[in-house]
Each structure stands twice: as structure tokens, then as C-alpha cells.
Amino acid sequence: MNDAATVLSASGVNKSFGSLVVANNIEFNLPTGQRHALIGPNGAGKTTFINLLTGMLQPDSGAIRLAGEDITNTPPAVRVKRGLVRTFQINTLFPQLTPIEAVTMAVCERRGEATTWWRGLSHYHEAIAEADQILTSLRLDKVATRTTRELAYGQQRLLEIALALATKPKVLLLDEPAAGVPKDESEDLFEVIAGLSSDLSILFIEHDMDIVFRFASHIIVLVSGAILVQGPPAEIAANPLVREVYLGKGRHGHAHS
Amino acid sequence: MAEAAPRGMTDWIASRARWRIGEIVFWLACLLPLLPAQYLPSFLQPFWIFDRYLQLLSQIAITALFAISLDLILGYAGVVSLGHAAFFGLGAYAAGLISKFWFTDPLLGLLCSALLAGALGYISSFVILRFHGLALIMITLGLGQLLAEAANSASWLTGGADALQGIRAGKIFGVFEFDIYGQTAYIYALVVTFLVFLVARRITNSPFGMSIRGIRDNSRRMLAIGAPNQQHLRRVFTIAAAMAGVAGALLTQTTQTCSLETLNFQRSADVLVILILGGVGRLYGAMAGAIIYMIARDIFSDVNPQYWYFWIGLLLIAVVRYMPDGLLGGLSFLGSKLRRS
Amino acid sequence: MLTSFISVLYDGFAYGMLLFVLSVGLSVTLGMMNFVNLAHCAFAMLGGYVTVTMINHLGWPFLATLPIAFLAAAVASVLLERTLYRSLYGRSDLDHCLLTIGIVFVSVAGAAYIFGTLQQPIQVPSWLRGTWVVGNLTFGVYRAFLIVVGLALAAALIVSLEYTRFGATVRAAVDNQRMARGLGIDVDRVFMLTFALGSGLAGLGGALAIEIVGLDHSFALHYLIYVLIVVSVGGMGSIWGSFVAAVVLGVSDMAGKYWLPQLGSFLIYLVMVGILMWRPLGLFGKR
């Protein structure tokens, strides 16, 4: 974790609710520019781990570092300002705003212009241009002036990412970005994600193994709040433990040895 | 990348803030009552016979202004308040007391009232914005009632139930006197309401306006993009409180009376009803609501004040059940349907 | 001093029992369905007018009218729940408030139309009217009756919620509606029954209240604020919370009226704001 290239790390992170252990001594490193996948059966604690990283939950013990600085006790909003940003598994958008309004607003928030109430939004050319560029890169430019509520579901999933990108993140945590999207569309969606700037480090949660193996450079398998194993895709695919615990789950119903 | 400046998007955002014909016509129409009766269409003339119609119109302007201030926090920022009369009443008493003990210049009085109400809004926002749901409704109601009871008890200052005595009316700019026909009062109320409306309109089209709408739509997501939600809400709450204070001060200055009614629960509830009837989150909804409500009250409560609330109740049920965006929202929905077909 | 202290405590406690009967139903239904029913006191007012009518026009004895007041309010509430409330369950708190305050306005005007705007007098049985004198203290018999009724109802509600099968389903639905549905509990039916029971209790409270606070067309609006204070201070969904809050409110209101009449109802609002700032979810609220 002292590796200069590590942008986000967790060391010895523990969290439990009563007797339920949701994070068990997690050691995690995300090198700059990498795309890591977090997989594991339902209830393994994947979203909880994201909540721990972003500060929506406070770990019982352990440390979280962003770009070398300890952020374990830093409030969520400050972590966002420092470049650690997440998206949500369930659409968490602004239903009554249009994508261009929402993303421009998010850009203004980042640039510290959002407290200005005496000047029209249309005067913020740079912010609008940046928002437009983000929306175009996510192929949302055609629907940018429609109310979010009226967008197709897949477009709303992309807007999830657009809002996160507007904060200019260093690290992007994507919680099942393709949740609820049909298989063929979800590959398109991941193509878009793969095309994002290579400076951006990404940790994503995904259930579809084909997609995980195709887009992740490194895979972390989480079971019952603990990291079972992690490594490059080929290694994970060949690992008998993973096959049994995770991939075999569908076949046997139970994952216990 | 910024060179690829998308004129389209900037234009589209600018078009959202552009003045529409209907708006200009509406504000110009507000000047009509000032014309001598013989220049008006004949069907309108009977209304001009009674001087009190100008007084009613002043009251409508003031009520509209009060409803606009509530629209900023409720319609745009999504914060419910059942104690908004506290700021209205504070502004009303401040204007009255300033004229009684200090100076009579109306505009300066208005400014002081706005500052005082804004200060109260800022201080109370630290308490109020910690609450949600029923607790929020109850805390705003409770704080509003506390102020009302305090004003009632402090009768040495406020006159208590006998209303504030000794309000003096100065000349606007030292020139225009408040006349018995209520003409100056109407122009004054209308101009102030229009100016405050311009401010509110600008706010709703600003980056800040976008952010408070974001908080209303999804406060969790706002936090996830690093927005200072509480700070934003405190700011809009303060602005809205100052505007409500202006409305209250206007009432005192144009009527030269100020009673406990400016502070009571009924006023908080009425302004909420007005805003809901007209439609939240569209500014003109506040105005439509104020016009309909005040005129209807003027007509019906003459007939039988007891039963006036029966119709308001029925209207509320119908609007909530069938027109969630209020009367204006319902109209614009109908309009867009007609245009499409 | 001690004399007045005891009578404030006695009268305040009796008043608190009245507030408890009036508000407990709203607390439970709010906790279960999150539906802010501001028309709760309109059902109480209905119960009051039923009792008044039956005594003054049909000559029924006071006690016999009480179950009818309960039933009338319960039936009326179910009718409204079916026709109006149901369509609004997914909507915001504000929409609930506005719809139900509309109902309050209609009911207030309706009551004024039918019964006029004067206070409605009733005749309670002579054995309820007297006072007991102990030393230089006087205790109203009717207040003792209220205390007995209130305590009995509170005990019955707490026991049945804790130990009956229906009580268990109600608790499950209040705690976690989704989970309760998952367990196969028909939450809508449970809610309807609870709603009817709660509104019925409000109707009973309205009938019991006439002798103490009187009854006129503005009852639905006037007592709404007291009931809401009890619910928010006690915490939604908690019977015990409503009980404690009702007693605190009843005693502090009585104390304010006795010792600091010039402050009006300043004291009760101060108590409410203070408690909410200390515990935003109310004394016993979980959510």
C-alpha cells in the first residue's frame, strides 16, 4: 500500500452490525488507472464495502487512504471533493431536472459556483461545455434536454455515471452500473465505461462473469465480508475455491464445502 | 474541448430563463387597475366604482409575494413549513415599530424588516433543517406559535390583542404620500412585489437554484456529488424569510395597521393552501393561487364567512387528488395536450 | 402551594388521559402506514356530535352513547380510507397533510352548517357531576372517570398489542411493513382495522371531551394541534410514548393555565420544541 501508484487503499478494515460481520479484515489496493472488479454472492458485503470507502459507513477498525492520505475519519462530502466518488445500484438521480441541468449543476458544485444565486446558469459557459462533453462521451447528448424522469432506463444508468464524472473523480466506485439492464445493452454500457479516461481508477461491482472477465484487470472475490481471493482474471477463473464458492453457487444452491 | 462550446446547450438553458409573452402580458395587466375607469373595457368598469378594489389588489400583491417566498423553500428546495407566518409577522411588526419609534421612510423600513426577518430565518434554520417529515412540520409550527405567543405576551411593545397603535406613514422617496384611494399603496405593493419576484426568478434560474432543486429531488445524491446541502438550504431559507419579512412590512405600511393576525397559525396555513392550489415550484403558481384565493374569499366570505372553508377544503381535496401540480400545473398540462393534438 | 400543586397534577393528568384517548390511534396508524392523517380530530368531532345528538334529541343516557360514538367514527374513517386515502399512500407527507386538512375544513364548515357555531351542552349523569372534598382539596368526579377510562384503555391496548395475535401483526407491520408483507401478513387489512380502531378511539375521546373542553365546530382544527404534539413528542407508533407525552402535555398545559395564564399556550409549545430538539424522533420514536 506504500506503492506510489496506489490511489485508494483499505487496510485491516472491519465492520459489524451486532453479531453480523459485514467487513472482515479487508486489505485492498487500487492502483492508478486500473479497473478492478468486486464480485461475490448476494449479501457478501460488496455495497457495504463501497459505503465504507465513501464514508457513508464508519469502519469499526482499520484505515482507508486516498492518494496516500488517511481519510478514515473524513466526512463523505470532503472525500468527494478529493476525488473519491460513487454511483448507486438503484438509480439515485434528480427526476425533475434534465441531464444537462443536472450535470452542469454538479460541475458548478465542483467549481464552487453553486452558491451564486444572482447570475443565470446560462452564463456559465465553461460548466455547460464540460457537462455537454461528459454527456456526449456517454452518448446522452441526444436526450440532454429531456426531463430525467422520461429517460429510458439504460440512459438513466448512464446518467448515474455522468453525474459522478462531473465531480472530476480520481477514483470511481461503480455499484452495479448495469443493474437491471438487458445483457446486450449492458455490454455497450461497459464499452462506454472502458472508454473513460485512463487516468481514472475504477472499482466496479458486477454480477455478469463474462463482463467481469472482459473488462476487469483485477478481480476481488468477497464472501461473507472477507476477501476470499484476488488476482488477475485468468487466475480467478482457474481458482477452484472461486469456482466452488461463487461460480458453483448456481449449480449446487449452497456454497459450503 | 471548451472550444467545442455547444451553443445548443447554452441556448437551451438560456431559453428556459427567457421571458415569455404570457409573463409580460400578465405584469402589464397588473397596471390596468390604475387607469381611469373610462379607458377600460365596459365589462370591467363596475369593479372600479369601489375604491376598496384597489385595497384588495394591494392585499393580493402582498399575499402573492408571501406565497412566492414559501415557494422558494417548499416548491424549489422541498422544505415544508407550517410556521412561515413567523417571518411575515416579524417583518410586519418591525415595519410598524420602526415607523413608530424611529423613522418613517417606507423603503428604509422595508429594508430593515427584510434584514431582521432574514436574520431570524438564518438563526432558526440551524434548528429547523435538522428535521424531516412530521417532526419538521411540528417544529416549524411550534416555533411559529412560540413567536406568536411571545408577541401576544409582550403587549407593552406590540399592543397585544389590541394591535399595534401609532404606526406612522412616511412618503415614498419623500414625495409620494399614501392616499385614501389606495392608489399609491397599490403601486408601491406592486412594484416591490415585482422586484422581489425578479430576484426569486433569477434565483430559480441560477446555479444555486439548480442545486436546491437537486436537494429537493434527491438529497442523498447531492451529498454523493459533494454538495453542501445544509449550507444551501440555510441560504435559501434565509432569503425566503427575508422575502416574507418584506411582504409583512408591506402589509403594515399599506394598511397602517399591524395585528397578531400577521403571526398566527391561520396565516401560515393559508399561504400553504394558496401555494398548493396555485401549484408549487413555478412562482406563477404562487401568484395564481393568491389571486384566486383572495378574490374568492372576498366574494364568498361576504355571503357567509362560516362556509368559505367548505369550498377551500373541497378544492384542496380535488387538487391533491386530481391535480398534483396545482391549478396552474393542471392548466399547463391541458395546454400542452391541446397543442399536441 | 401544595394544594394547587396537587390539583394541577390531578386535573392535568385527567386532561392528559383525554389527550391520550384522542391521539393514540393517530400515533399507531402513522407508525404503520406513514400516513399523516390530519383529519383524525374530525373523527373525534364526529363522535362528539353523535353523543350530543343522542343525548339531547333521542334521550339516550351518556354512557350508552359512548359505544355509538366509537362506532360512528370507526365506520366513517373506513369509508374515507377506502375512497380517498388509499390512492395517496405512495405520495409525500405534504400531500397527505393537504388532503386531510381539506377534509378538516369541509368537516368544520359542515358542522357549523348542521349544528351552528355555539358550544353544545350535554347532561352527564348526576353521579359523574359531583366533586369529592378532601381537606381543602376538591376532586371532580368526572375527571376521576376520565382517568379510570384512560388508564383502562392504555392497559388494554398495551396488553392486547403485546399478547394477542392481532397485536403481534400490528407490531410487525409498524416495525417493518415490507417484512410483514413478506411473512404473509395482510398489511392492508391490518391497517384498515387499526385505522378503524384508532379513529373509533378518537370518536370516543371526542365524546368524553365535551364535559371538559366543550364541543363546537372548530374542535377538529383546535385539538388537531394538541394531538399532533402528543404524537410527535411521544414518537410515532408508540402507545407508551403517546401515553407519556399526553400526560406531560396535559400537566404542563394545566400548570401553564394555572400559574402563568398570561403566557397562554406558550408553555406547551416550549415543551414540544424542547423535547423535539433533544430527541427529534420523539421520546419513544424509532424512526
List the helices and strands and how they pair.
The complex is a heterotrimer of chains A (257), B (341) and C (287).
Chain A: E1 6-17, E2 20-31, E3 35-39, H1 46-54, E4 61-66, E5 69-70, H2 76-81, E6 84-86, H3 99-110, H4 125-137, H5 153-165, E7 171-175, H6 183-194, E8 201-205, H7 209-215, E9 218-223, E10 226-231, H8 233-238, H9 240-247, H10 249-252
Parallel strand pairs in A: 3-8, 3-9, 6-7, 7-8
Antiparallel strand pairs in A: 1-2, 1-4, 4-5, 9-10
Helix pairs in contact in A: 3-4, 3-5
Chain B: H1 7-17, H2 21-29, H3 45-48, H4 52-76, H5 85-101, H6 106-128, H7 133-153, H8 155-158, H9 183-204, H10 207-217, H11 219-224, H12 229-255, H13 265-278, H14 284-303, H15 308-322, H16 326-340
Chain C: H1 2-33, H2 40-56, H3 62-83, H4 93-115, H5 126-129, E1 131-134, E2 137-140, H6 141-163, H7 165-175, H8 177-182, H9 187-213, H10 219-234, H11 239-259, H12 266-278
Antiparallel strand pairs in C: 1-2
Question: Could you explain how this protein is built, in words?
Answer:
The complex is a heterotrimer of chains A (257), B (341) and C (287). Chain A is globular. Chain A starts with 5 loop residues before the first strand and ends in a 5-residue tail after the last helix. Chain A has a domain at 6-93 and 169-252: P-loop containing nucleotide triphosphate hydrolases (Rossmann fold). In chain A, strands 6-7-8-3-9-10 form a six-stranded mixed beta sheet, sandwiched between helices. In chain A, strands 2-1-4-5 form a four-stranded antiparallel beta sheet, with helices on one face. Chain A contains ten helices and ten strands. Chain A has helices at 46-54, 76-81, 99-110, 125-137, 153-165, 183-194, 209-215, 233-238, 240-247, 249-252; strands at 6-17, 20-31, 35-39, 61-66, 69-70, 84-86, 171-175, 201-205, 218-223, 226-231. Helix content of chain B is 72%, strand content 0%. Chain B contains 16 helices and no strands. Chain B is globular and about 55 Å long. Chain C is an all-alpha fold and 287 residues long. Chain C has one domain. Chain C has twelve helices and two strands; from the N terminus they run H-H-H-H-H-E-E-H-H-H-H-H-H-H. In chain C, strands 1-2 form a two-stranded antiparallel ribbon. In chain C, helix 1 packs across helix 7, helix 2 packs antiparallel against helix 3 (62-83) and helix 10 crosses helix 11 (239-259). The longest helix of chain C is centred in the N-terminal third of the chain and has 32 residues, at 2-33. The mean pLDDT of chain C is 87. Chains in contact: A-B, B-C. The interface between A and B is large, with 50 and 38 residues.
